[in-house]
Write a structure and sequence with these properties.
Strand content: 15-25%
Strand order of the largest sheet: 1-2-3-4
Protein name: Aromatic amino acid beta-eliminating lyase/threonine aldolase domain-containing protein
Cofactor: pyridoxal 5'-phosphate
Pfam family, one: Beta_elim_lyase
Helix content: 40-55%
Family: Belongs to the threonine aldolase family.
GO molecular function: L-allo-threonine aldolase activity
Radius of gyration: 20 Å
Largest sheet: 4 strands, mixed
Distance between the termini: 47 Å
CATH class of the largest domain: Alpha Beta
Protein backbone atom coordinates (compact mmCIF):
# COMPACT_ATOMS: atom_id res chain seq x y z
CA UNK A 1 0.00 0.00 0.00
CA UNK A 2 1.64 3.25 -1.13
CA UNK A 3 1.39 6.21 1.24
CA UNK A 4 2.02 9.63 -0.35
CA UNK A 5 5.14 11.48 0.71
CA UNK A 6 5.15 14.90 2.30
CA UNK A 7 7.47 17.47 0.72
CA UNK A 8 10.05 16.87 3.46
CA UNK A 9 10.31 13.19 2.55
CA UNK A 10 8.30 11.92 5.49
CA UNK A 11 5.10 9.92 5.50
CA UNK A 12 2.52 11.57 7.72
CA UNK A 13 2.04 9.36 10.78
CA UNK A 14 -1.73 9.59 10.48
CA UNK A 15 -1.49 8.46 6.84
CA UNK A 16 0.58 5.44 7.84
CA UNK A 17 -1.90 4.56 10.57
CA UNK A 18 -4.82 4.91 8.15
CA UNK A 19 -3.13 2.60 5.64
CA UNK A 20 -2.83 -0.31 8.09
CA UNK A 21 -5.40 -2.90 7.04
CA UNK A 22 -8.00 -4.09 9.56
CA UNK A 23 -8.12 -7.76 10.53
CA UNK A 24 -10.54 -8.68 7.78
CA UNK A 25 -10.31 -11.63 5.34
CA UNK A 26 -11.23 -9.29 2.50
CA UNK A 27 -7.94 -7.38 2.86
CA UNK A 28 -4.27 -8.32 2.62
CA UNK A 29 -2.44 -8.38 5.94
CA UNK A 30 -0.31 -5.32 6.73
CA UNK A 31 3.14 -6.44 7.87
CA UNK A 32 5.76 -3.82 7.05
CA UNK A 33 6.51 -0.09 7.00
CA UNK A 34 9.29 1.06 4.64
CA UNK A 35 11.08 4.41 4.65
CA UNK A 36 13.85 5.78 2.43
CA UNK A 37 16.61 7.93 3.96
CA UNK A 38 17.67 10.21 2.39
CA UNK A 39 14.57 10.56 0.26
CA UNK A 40 15.60 10.69 -3.40
CA UNK A 41 12.61 12.22 -5.17
CA UNK A 42 12.06 14.77 -2.40
CA UNK A 43 15.45 16.31 -3.11
CA UNK A 44 17.75 14.12 -1.02
CA UNK A 45 16.22 15.34 2.23
CA UNK A 46 17.28 13.46 5.39
CA UNK A 47 14.72 12.00 7.77
CA UNK A 48 15.47 12.87 11.39
CA UNK A 49 16.16 10.64 14.38
CA UNK A 50 12.96 11.87 16.05
CA UNK A 51 10.75 11.14 13.05
CA UNK A 52 12.26 7.69 12.59
CA UNK A 53 11.67 6.97 16.28
CA UNK A 54 8.01 7.94 15.92
CA UNK A 55 7.55 5.62 12.95
CA UNK A 56 9.25 2.83 14.87
CA UNK A 57 6.87 3.30 17.79
CA UNK A 58 3.88 3.26 15.43
CA UNK A 59 5.13 0.02 13.88
CA UNK A 60 5.63 -1.59 17.28
CA UNK A 61 2.14 -0.59 18.48
CA UNK A 62 0.65 -2.28 15.43
CA UNK A 63 2.91 -5.37 15.44
CA UNK A 64 4.49 -4.35 12.13
CA UNK A 65 8.07 -4.74 10.97
CA UNK A 66 10.00 -1.59 10.06
CA UNK A 67 12.54 -1.47 7.20
CA UNK A 68 14.73 1.47 6.17
CA UNK A 69 16.08 1.79 2.64
CA UNK A 70 19.33 3.41 3.71
CA UNK A 71 20.95 3.74 0.29
CA UNK A 72 22.09 7.23 1.34
CA UNK A 73 21.85 6.82 5.12
CA UNK A 74 25.40 8.12 5.59
CA UNK A 75 24.52 11.33 3.73
CA UNK A 76 21.62 11.74 6.13
CA UNK A 77 23.83 11.15 9.17
CA UNK A 78 26.46 13.66 8.02
CA UNK A 79 23.85 16.29 7.12
CA UNK A 80 22.09 15.95 10.48
CA UNK A 81 25.27 15.64 12.55
CA UNK A 82 24.25 12.31 14.08
CA UNK A 83 25.47 8.73 13.77
CA UNK A 84 23.98 6.36 11.24
CA UNK A 85 23.30 3.99 14.15
CA UNK A 86 20.98 6.56 15.72
CA UNK A 87 19.07 6.98 12.46
CA UNK A 88 18.35 3.27 12.07
CA UNK A 89 17.99 2.24 15.73
CA UNK A 90 14.17 1.78 15.62
CA UNK A 91 14.26 -0.36 12.46
CA UNK A 92 14.09 -4.15 12.24
CA UNK A 93 16.15 -4.16 9.05
CA UNK A 94 18.23 -1.73 7.01
CA UNK A 95 19.76 -1.79 3.54
CA UNK A 96 22.90 0.28 2.98
CA UNK A 97 24.58 0.92 -0.36
CA UNK A 98 28.33 1.13 -0.96
CA UNK A 99 28.12 2.23 -4.59
CA UNK A 100 26.19 5.49 -4.33
CA UNK A 101 27.70 8.28 -2.24
CA UNK A 102 30.41 5.98 -0.86
CA UNK A 103 31.66 5.35 -4.42
CA UNK A 104 32.46 1.64 -4.29
CA UNK A 105 32.17 0.03 -7.75
CA UNK A 106 29.31 -2.21 -6.61
CA UNK A 107 27.70 -3.55 -3.48
CA UNK A 108 25.02 -3.25 -0.83
CA UNK A 109 24.49 -4.83 2.57
CA UNK A 110 21.36 -5.95 4.36
CA UNK A 111 21.45 -5.53 8.14
CA UNK A 112 19.25 -7.09 10.79
CA UNK A 113 19.31 -9.52 13.69
CA UNK A 114 20.85 -12.99 13.40
CA UNK A 115 17.60 -14.81 12.62
CA UNK A 116 16.60 -12.24 10.00
CA UNK A 117 19.95 -12.54 8.20
CA UNK A 118 19.76 -16.35 8.33
CA UNK A 119 16.39 -16.24 6.57
CA UNK A 120 17.60 -13.60 4.10
CA UNK A 121 20.55 -15.78 3.08
CA UNK A 122 18.25 -18.71 2.45
CA UNK A 123 15.87 -16.59 0.38
CA UNK A 124 18.79 -15.18 -1.59
CA UNK A 125 19.87 -18.71 -2.45
CA UNK A 126 16.31 -19.69 -3.40
CA UNK A 127 16.18 -16.76 -5.82
CA UNK A 128 19.53 -17.62 -7.40
CA UNK A 129 21.53 -14.91 -5.65
CA UNK A 130 25.05 -15.07 -4.31
CA UNK A 131 28.58 -14.64 -5.64
CA UNK A 132 31.77 -16.66 -5.37
CA UNK A 133 35.21 -15.16 -4.81
CA UNK A 134 33.58 -11.86 -3.88
CA UNK A 135 36.37 -10.73 -1.57
CA UNK A 136 37.61 -8.06 -3.96
CA UNK A 137 34.16 -6.47 -3.90
CA UNK A 138 33.98 -6.76 -0.12
CA UNK A 139 37.36 -5.02 0.09
CA UNK A 140 35.96 -2.08 -1.87
CA UNK A 141 33.05 -1.93 0.56
CA UNK A 142 35.46 -1.78 3.50
CA UNK A 143 37.34 1.10 1.87
CA UNK A 144 34.02 2.87 1.31
CA UNK A 145 32.99 2.56 4.95
CA UNK A 146 36.38 3.49 6.37
CA UNK A 147 37.36 6.38 4.10
CA UNK A 148 34.31 7.78 2.32
CA UNK A 149 31.79 8.62 5.04
CA UNK A 150 33.47 11.62 6.66
CA UNK A 151 34.13 13.29 3.31
CA UNK A 152 30.42 13.32 2.37
CA UNK A 153 30.23 16.83 3.81
CA UNK A 154 32.37 17.94 0.85
CA UNK A 155 29.72 16.63 -1.54
CA UNK A 156 27.02 18.54 0.32
CA UNK A 157 29.07 21.74 0.15
CA UNK A 158 29.62 21.33 -3.60
CA UNK A 159 25.92 20.64 -4.13
CA UNK A 160 25.22 24.03 -2.55
CA UNK A 161 27.85 25.64 -4.79
CA UNK A 162 26.25 24.02 -7.82
CA UNK A 163 22.84 25.27 -6.74
CA UNK A 164 24.21 28.78 -6.22
CA UNK A 165 25.50 28.82 -9.78
CA UNK A 166 22.40 27.33 -11.40
CA UNK A 167 19.94 29.65 -9.64
CA UNK A 168 21.51 32.62 -11.44
CA UNK A 169 20.76 31.19 -14.88
CA UNK A 170 17.63 32.43 -16.61
CA UNK A 171 15.24 29.62 -17.42
CA UNK A 172 16.08 27.47 -14.39
CA UNK A 173 14.36 27.19 -11.03
CA UNK A 174 15.66 25.34 -7.97
CA UNK A 175 13.20 23.12 -6.13
CA UNK A 176 15.10 23.64 -2.87
CA UNK A 177 16.88 26.89 -2.14
CA UNK A 178 19.64 25.11 -0.23
CA UNK A 179 20.17 21.42 -1.13
CA UNK A 180 20.06 19.40 2.11
CA UNK A 181 22.59 16.80 0.95
CA UNK A 182 24.23 15.95 -2.39
CA UNK A 183 21.30 16.28 -4.81
CA UNK A 184 20.20 19.33 -6.77
CA UNK A 185 16.75 19.27 -8.37
CA UNK A 186 15.90 21.89 -10.98
CA UNK A 187 12.98 22.71 -13.24
CA UNK A 188 12.57 24.85 -16.33
CA UNK A 189 10.77 28.17 -16.13
CA UNK A 190 8.83 29.69 -19.07
CA UNK A 191 11.97 31.70 -19.92
CA UNK A 192 13.91 28.56 -20.93
CA UNK A 193 15.09 28.69 -24.53
CA UNK A 194 15.05 24.90 -25.15
CA UNK A 195 13.22 21.89 -23.74
CA UNK A 196 14.55 19.65 -21.00
CA UNK A 197 15.15 16.65 -23.26
CA UNK A 198 17.37 18.68 -25.57
CA UNK A 199 19.24 20.18 -22.64
CA UNK A 200 20.00 16.74 -21.19
CA UNK A 201 21.20 15.45 -24.57
CA UNK A 202 23.48 18.42 -25.22
CA UNK A 203 24.95 18.28 -21.71
CA UNK A 204 25.61 14.55 -22.13
CA UNK A 205 27.73 15.46 -25.14
CA UNK A 206 29.76 17.67 -22.83
CA UNK A 207 30.30 14.83 -20.36
CA UNK A 208 27.66 15.99 -17.88
CA UNK A 209 25.06 13.44 -16.82
CA UNK A 210 21.70 14.90 -15.83
CA UNK A 211 18.72 12.71 -14.93
CA UNK A 212 15.46 13.77 -16.56
CA UNK A 213 12.51 13.00 -14.31
CA UNK A 214 9.29 13.74 -16.10
CA UNK A 215 8.98 16.37 -18.80
CA UNK A 216 10.43 19.29 -16.89
CA UNK A 217 12.27 18.05 -13.80
CA UNK A 218 15.99 17.28 -13.65
CA UNK A 219 18.37 15.91 -11.03
CA UNK A 220 22.10 16.42 -10.59
CA UNK A 221 24.05 14.41 -8.00
CA UNK A 222 27.42 15.38 -6.53
CA UNK A 223 29.82 12.61 -5.50
CA UNK A 224 33.48 11.87 -4.79
CA UNK A 225 34.58 12.38 -8.40
CA UNK A 226 32.98 15.83 -8.69
CA UNK A 227 35.46 18.52 -7.61
CA UNK A 228 35.24 22.32 -7.61
CA UNK A 229 36.36 22.54 -11.24
CA UNK A 230 33.66 20.09 -12.27
CA UNK A 231 31.05 22.24 -10.52
CA UNK A 232 32.30 25.35 -12.34
CA UNK A 233 32.34 23.50 -15.66
CA UNK A 234 28.79 22.27 -15.13
CA UNK A 235 27.43 25.73 -14.33
CA UNK A 236 29.22 27.27 -17.32
CA UNK A 237 27.92 24.51 -19.60
CA UNK A 238 24.35 25.19 -18.48
CA UNK A 239 24.92 28.88 -19.23
CA UNK A 240 26.18 28.16 -22.72
CA UNK A 241 23.45 25.68 -23.63
CA UNK A 242 20.70 27.98 -22.37
CA UNK A 243 22.19 30.94 -24.22
CA UNK A 244 23.33 32.82 -21.13
CA UNK A 245 27.08 32.41 -21.58
Amino acid sequence: HTVPNQTDGTLALEDIAAAIRPDNPHFPISRLICLENTHNRCGGVPLTVEYTRQVGELAERNSLKFHIDGARIFNAAVALGVSSAELVAPADSVMICFSKALCAPVGSALCGNEEFIRRARRMRKQLGGGMRQAGVLAAAGIVALESMVDRLADDHTRARLLADGLRKIQGLSLETEIPPTNMVYIQFTPQATINATTLVEVLAGKGIKVSLIGANRMRLVVHHWIDDKAVEYTVESFRQVLGCG
